[in-house]
């Protein structure tokens, strides 16, 4: 419980909107971005009083920082400097902290890169999605394969070695061959970490609406079937494994010693605190844990309408809408430990669950666990339970089948 906390910083700005995305991100001018950075810094300053207000334990020590979005690399070096100044003012950032920046290839200026390196940033996650230019262009990504390769070379030349490549399986125009090509390119560029996501099309995105209405502008007709995407995901698991990039979570693969320390916190239920639009947090309390989330409405976040985040709620004594706060009780904590743990390839240690939550809870969950084992979606060896490769394809179905009442 007293371990260091992970910090997530949400930067919801993008140079262009991807056709499948309806995430709370957008294309905004410089003034709004600066206003956002100021809000972010105010929120960081208020973090400790916010935690006190929730009776939550917010450690001073920080060992991971993750800038996600959006496209955080669009911020200037000066803006990152301000954010780090506030982070270091409120927290003790470990000398060996893992500091990750999400970045779109071609959207990281030399000035921003230099400042981030000066601040200790040591990991970059590139939103490549596909090494096939037609596929990237079809969903509104602005880069080409050649630009990706040039970016990898540039950041490596600056001394940065920890590179993640994000790929999406199921993009419009993707075929079995073109997907294999993208995976092989990710291997060939020797990125120590690769993430593979199934395309998730938001119904309210441009592509989502077009898929519902059978239009043609955003290549809705060229989206592979779910079965095809599932097959290709499985092929990627094999190809990456053969290349020494081993799966450790449903969507994440790494060479030995290169797992994302920050993301592991989510799956291992370690404390993390999020700042910025739609940022989520989980902090421990004497009673267990508390989860809370910031608003996903940018105007509200910026204070342009009279509302707020948990932070501002405590900063300003004014009438505000209730922030989204969930107290994680014993049953919820048990379910989280099971479901989040099952996302990891090594699975869940039932002995540990018993020692944390008592024998009765594990016993109550056992019939459902055994039923899903019989369906071939889980496997149980001694005291360890894990998803099978088939189970990883339908993890949400597995989790819903395991949602059974447990002893109080
Ligand atoms: S997918 Fe990412 S980069 Fe694309 S619009 Fe959404 S947040 Fe921005």
Sum up the structure in keywords:
single chain, 2 domains, 9-stranded mixed sheet, 4-stranded antiparallel sheet, binds iron/sulfur cluster
Which bin fits the share of residues in helices?
40-55%
- The CATH superfamily of the largest domain is identified as Aldolase class I
CATH class of the largest domain: Alpha Beta
Strand content: 15-25%
Instruction: Work out the helix count.
Output: 17
Low-confidence stretches: 312-322
Overview of this protein structure:
The protein folds into two domains: 5-266, Aldolase class I (TIM Barrel, Alpha-Beta Barrel), CATH 3.20.20; 330-402, Arc Repressor Mutant, subunit A. The longest helix has 17 residues, at 226-242. A nine-stranded mixed sheet has the order 8-9-7-6-5-4-3-1-10, with helices on both faces. Strands 2-11-12-13 form a four-stranded antiparallel sheet. A hairpin with a 2-residue loop joins β11 (280-285) and β12 (288-293). The protein is 42% helix and 22% strand. With 408 residues, the protein is α/β, with parallel strands linked by helices. The protein binds iron/sulfur cluster. Iron/sulfur cluster binds at residues 14, 17-18, 21, 23, 25, 69-71, 127.
């Amino acid at each position: 419980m007293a371990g260091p906390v992970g910090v997530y910083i949400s930067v919801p700005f993008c140079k262009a909107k991807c056709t499948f995305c309806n995430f709370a991100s957008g294309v905004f001018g410089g003034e709004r971005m600066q206003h956002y950075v100021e809000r972010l810094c105010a929120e960081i300053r208020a973090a400790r009083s916010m935690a006190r207000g929730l009776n939550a334990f917010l450690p001073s020590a920080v060992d991971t920082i993750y800038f996600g979005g959006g496209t955080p690399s669009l911020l200037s070096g000066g803006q990152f400097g301000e954010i780090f100044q506030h982070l270091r003012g409120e927290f003790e950032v470990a000398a060996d902290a893992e500091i990750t920046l999400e970045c779109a290839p071609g959207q990281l200026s030399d000035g921003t890169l230099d400042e981030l390196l000066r601040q200790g940033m040591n990991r970059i996650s590139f939103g490549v999605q596909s090494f096939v230019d037609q596929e990237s262009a079809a969903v509104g990504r602005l880069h080409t394969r050649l630009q990706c390769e040039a970016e990898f070379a540039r950041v490596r030349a600056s001394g940065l070695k920890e590179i993640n490549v994000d790929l999406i399986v199921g993009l419009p125009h993707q075929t079995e061959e073109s997907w294999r090509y993208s995976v092989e390119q990710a291997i060939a560029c020797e990125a120590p970490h690769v993430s593979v996501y199934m395309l998730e099309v938001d119904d309210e995105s441009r592509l989502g609406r077009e898929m519902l209405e059978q239009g043609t502008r955003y290549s809705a007709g060229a989206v592979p079937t779910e079965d095809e995407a599932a097959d290709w995901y499985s092929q990627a698991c094999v190809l990456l494994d053969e290349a020494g990039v081993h799966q450790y979570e449903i969507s994440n693969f790494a060479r030995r010693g290169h797992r994302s320390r920050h993301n592991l916190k989510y799956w291992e239920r370690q404390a993390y605190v999020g700042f910025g639009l739609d940022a989520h947090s989980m902090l421990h309390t004497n009673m267990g844990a508390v989860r809370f989330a910031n608003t996903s409405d940018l105007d509200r976040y910026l204070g342009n309408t009279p509302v707020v985040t948990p932070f501002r709620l405590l900063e300003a004594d004014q009438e505000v809408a209730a922030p989204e706060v969930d107290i994680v009780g014993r049953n919820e904590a048990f379910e989280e430990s099971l479901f989040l743990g099952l996302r990891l390839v090594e699975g869940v240690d039932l002995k540990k669950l018993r020692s944390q939550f008592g024998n009765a809870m594990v016993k109550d969950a056992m019939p459902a666990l055994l039923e899903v084992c019989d369906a071939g979606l889980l496997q149980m060896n001694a005291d360890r339970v894990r998803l099978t490769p088939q189970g990883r394809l339908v993890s949400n179905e597995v989790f819903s089948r395991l949602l059974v009442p447990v002893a109080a």
